[in-house]
Amino acid sequence: MPSPSDVVQTSERVAMTSVNGAEFCGDAMAIPFDGPWTVVPADSSLDKEWGVGSEQVRLRIPVARFRSQYDDHWETIRFCNREEEAGHCGRYLTNWQARWITRRASWHCDSAEPVLFFRKKFTIDRPFQEARLCITAVNRFELYVNGHLVAIERGWDDPKLIDLTDHLVLGENTLAVKVMNDTPASGINLLAVERFDPSWLTSLLCHLRIWGEDMPWDIVSDASWVVTNREDEDWMAPDHPAERLAVRVDPKEHEGFWLATPGWVYAWERGRPPLLPWGHLPLFGEYVRFPVRLTYEVTLPPGTEAVFRPDIQGEWSACIEGVPVTDVLLQQGVVHLTPRSHPANFTIDVMAEDFACGVRAPIEITVAEREAELKPWDRWGLHWFSGRVIYRNAFWLQDADGVADSVERREGGKRRVELDLGTVKHHAEVWVNGKLVRVLLWPPYRVDISHAVRPGRNEVCIIVSNLIANRMRYGILDEGRALGWNRYWMEDNIDRDKHNLESGLLGPVLIRIV
C-alpha cells in the first residue's frame, strides 16, 4: 500500500482523515497513486492512430551546441538545413566574430533602404602599434574615423583591408560608415522567391583589430553599433549625440506590424558569415584554414538506452559523460547505456579537412520508459521537441476499503471518480484501463473517469502533446535567417510568448471521489 507521502496534497484540503490508504476531506476522498509516474516520448505512429504507445521509442535529435577552435563560445546549430539535405560544417563554421548588421526598426528590416548610417564609439586606453580594419558592405560605403573621411569602396564580396593606425588616438574614437545600396530589395516580394540576390539586403560587416603590448583587441560590427536611415548634419562627427539618442528596438514588443521607430536605433544582427546569401568571406585576407577541430555537444534525454553510430564525415571521436565510446560505435554501430534519470552529454569531436566535414544527420537514439518527476520537457533536454510524451501510473479501488463501492453510493448519494491533471502544457489524452476517456485541449484539465474505473488496480495513461512552436523555434532555414520578417515569425514572435514553449504534464495530478 502507498504511504501518505505518495498522496499529492491540494490547496483545498483543510482537514484530512485516512482510511486504508484513501484520504477524506470533508465530503471528498483522495485516492493515492500506486507509485511514481513513468514517462517515455511517443513516436510518430500516434500521429495516425489512437493508442497508448510503446515503452520504447526511437528519436532523432536534430540540434546540438557547437564550437570550433576559432571560437570558444557555444552556439546552437541544427545538423541539417532541410531533412533531405546532408549536414556539413560549411553551414556554420567561420573565422569571423563580426556580424552582418542593418537597421531593424520594426518587425521587418530595412532591406529596402538605399542608404544607412552606422556609428560605433570605443576607447583605447593604452598605447598601440597597429590597427587594421576588414570591412565590406552592400553595396558601397564611405568610412569616417573620428569625423574624417578615410575610404570610399564598393563591392560586398571582396572585404577591404584598411590601415587605421594613423587615424586612431588614445582615448575615445568614433567609427562611422555610410552604406549605400544601388539595388535594394524595394518592390521585391521576398516571400515569393527561392533565392535572393546578395545585393538586395543593405548591410554592413566589419572587424577592427588593434595590436599593442598586451593585445590584439577586436572591435566588430554587432548590436552595440547604432544606425539611422536619415542623414543628420555632421552625423559622422565624434560629438554627434547619436549614441545618446539611439533606442533599442525589440520586435517582440511592437504592438503593430507597421509601427517603426524613427531616427537612431541600435543595430540588428543578421548573423555571422557564412550567413546566406553572402556565404564565406575572407577575414583579413584569409578564409577558414583547415584542418579545424569541431566540437558538438548533444543532450541525451533521461531514459536513453542506446545511441547509434552518428553519420559523420571526417575523423572523429565521441564520449558520453566523459567516457569514450568511439570504438564501440565504430565496431558495433551502437552503444548501449543504462538509462539515467537525468540528461547526459554526448560529445563529438571532428577533425574537419574541408567544409564538407562534420555531423551529417540527426543523432539517433532509443529512449526507454522510466520513472520521473513531473517537470517541463526542457529539463530533460527536449526543448526542441514538438510531439507527445506518454505518462503512466496506476491507483487502487478496493472493495475492502469501501472505496470502489463509494463510486456508486456513499451516504445515499451517487458519487463519481474525478481525475484532475493540474497544469498541462498543452493538450492531454486521458486513457484509463486502455480506454480513451477524453481529450482535453484547454483548462480545466479535469475529467470524470467513473465509467472507466473498476475494483482493484486501475491503469492511467496520459498522453501530453505540446505546440509546433518548439520545433519552429529551431527550424528556420539558412536561406531565411538574414531576413527580419523570417526571424520575426520563427524567433521573435515565439520568444514573445515564451510560456508557450513550456511543455509537459506539470500537475499536481489528483484522483478524487466527489
Automatic annotation (TrEMBL):
InterPro entries, sorted: Galactose-bd-like_sf, Ulvan_degrading_GH
A GO molecular-function descriptor: hydrolase activity, hydrolyzing O-glycosyl compounds
GO biological process: carbohydrate metabolic process
Listed name of the protein: Glycosyl hydrolase family 2
Record organism: Alicyclobacillus cellulosilyticus
